[in-house]
Amino acid sequence: MISPDKTAAAYIRVSDERQDEYSPDSQLKRIREYCKENGYELPQEYIFYDDGISGKSVKRRDQFRELIALAKDKDHPIDAILVWKFSRFARNQEESIVYKSLLQKIGVTVVSISEPLPDGPFGSLVERIIEWMDEYYLIRLSGEVKRGMLEKASRGQPVCAPAFGYDLKDDMYTPNDQAPIVRDVFESFVSGEGIRKIARRLGDAGVRTRFGNLPDNRWVEYMLNNPTYIGKIRWSTDGRTASARRYDDPNIVIFDGKHEPIVSKELWDSAQALLTERKTKYAKYARKEQAPSSFPLRSLFRCSACGATLIQSTAKNPGLQCHNYSRGICDTSHSITQKKAEAALAEALEDSLRTLSFYVTPTAEIVSSPGNVEIERNIAAEKRRLQRAKDAYQNGVDTLEEYAENKKRITQRIRDLESQLNPEPPAPVSLEKYVARVKNALKLLKDPSVKPDAKNKALLEILEKVIFRANTRTIDLYFRPL
User: Fold this and answer.
1) Residues 472, 48: Cα–Cα separation, whole Å
2) Cα gap 251→242, rounded to integer Å
3) What percent of the chain has pLDDT over 90?
């Protein structure tokens, strides 16, 4: 063992938990052994995990981005990034070259502990060849998986997670105790009950989606368009079309399944006929895509009941409405015309200028805000890491000391995240430095010659959010810290 004189960070990624040879614990164990043999110190806080994430792109690899940010820190805390294989770092050769070049400029090397490279220029060539082979493998694997899934679907076998109302047992969809709810949805829709009303009724009755969320319009509509319920298997040849709710896309293929239907063919046909009728009848009212910042209050107004953003409607008198209310989740309408909302905002800004009182947004959003969904997901991810750390200790992979360190670090992260779900109320402050920016935003808001996107930009620079209270028809302003 060599005394450590260099500091390393470890990056561990698994794209499929079934790849036992690449499990997080086995990767970390080999990296720790490499550190002891090659004089690297590996602090616990410099170990980064991305679980169940593809190496095709860095966009969804949050821990990878944190690692790069650490390496770029002005204090240059690490000398190397250690990975089990170069494919763990990236399988996209273009991104791999970009990030390795960036790291090389600041004196950080990427080391594959199981793929030693020869010294000199030939080592760089070998590394490029390995990267090319990794990317080729990913492309080939993707094609093979798609072909295999299509073949499986053509045999009537499941190719995705079971729909609501089914369990997956012995590679077969099997109706569960939620199947009567599915039949109720179809029967209620055919009988004339609206999609939004169905979603609200189910939510009030305690029904939750497969992911634990409240039913909404899109969930009910997706159910009504899912041929799984009449014994079919639906598959998109591009792997994305069905989830994007483009049900008539030519990429979608449907095969006879081997599972038991929940809905009769007659009930299904009646529902499809009604969906087609509604689509034709209300086509002219379909929501059009909005250009970014196409109206001054975009992303600003929030519902006081659930915290969701108020979105723009396309009625003759343009207005705002709670996004969750439109989806059938929130039970309180927050409808207000854009003209009245802009007038109320202008009046509130003028009042803030008169009193020089500005409320700064608290660190975390209000408890019912959709932003907390992400916090709760992060908490769940940390709890899974804690369980893996425990498993590693019980299976003899980590020592008691290593487990204690992991437990302490992960538990603290869970506490930090949980504290964000209970924010302190905003504290009033009187700061002169807000005045100039608020005056400028107010001037632009009231000027009819200024384009909506310019108004929106100016407002977003000073305001974090505007809470609209439908019961009192008042608004509360939350300013950004300057």
Assistant:
1) 48
2) 9
3) 18
- The model's pLDDT over 252-303, given as tens digits with 9 standing for 90+, comes to 888 898 899 999 999 999 999 998 888 776 554 454 444 444 678 988 999 9
- What is the third-level CATH fold of 6-139? Rossmann fold (3.40.50)
Q: Which amino acid is at 153?
A: A
Q: Between 294 and 169, whose confidence is greater? A: 169
C-alpha distance from residue 201 to each of 140, 198, 214, 250 (Å): 47, 5, 11, 34
In angstroms, rounded to a whole number, what is the distance separating the alpha carbons of residues 183 and 195?
14
Can you tell me the mean pLDDT for 429-445?
Answer: 79
Q: Is the dihedral of CA 202, 220, 187, 195 positive or negative?
A: positive
Alpha helices in 395-478 (DSSP H): 400-419, 433-446, 452-462
Q: Which two tokens stand for residue 412?
A: 């603290």
In angstroms, the CA 164 to CA 151 distance is 24
How many Cα atoms sit within 13 Å of 240 on the Cβ side?
1
- Window from 112-121, 228-237, 406-415 with minimum mean pLDDT: 112-121
Superfamily of domain 155-283: Putative Large Serine Recombinase; Chain B, Domain 2 (3.90.1750.20)
Secondary structure class of 254 (helix, strand, coil): strand
Q: What is the pLDDT of residues 313-370, one digit of tens each?
A: 765 567 898 888 887 778 888 899 988 999 999 999 998 888 887 776 554 333 344 4
Q: Where are the alpha helices (DSSP H) in 233-370?
A: 265-281, 323-327, 338-355
| β-pair partners for 320 | 312, 336
Residues in CB range of 399: below 8 A, 6 or more apart:
393
| Residue 18: band (very low, low, confident or very high) from pLDDT cuts 50, 70, 90 | very low
Mark 93-123 as b/e (b = at least 16 C-beta within 10 Å): bebbeebbeebeeeebebbbbeeeeeeeeee
In sequence order, what DSSP letters do the residues of 42-101 get, joined into one string?
Answer: --GGGEEEEES--SS-STT-HHHHHHHHHHTSTT---SEEEESSHHHH-S-HHHHHHHHH
Q: Are 2 and 38 in contact (CB under 8 A)?
A: yes
Q: Which token pair is 230?
A: 């009449």
- Scored b (16 or more CB within 10 A) or e, 271-309 reads beeebeeeeeeeeeeeeeeeeebebbbbebbbbbbbbbb
Instruction: Give the DSSP H or E segment for 11.
Output: strand 6-14
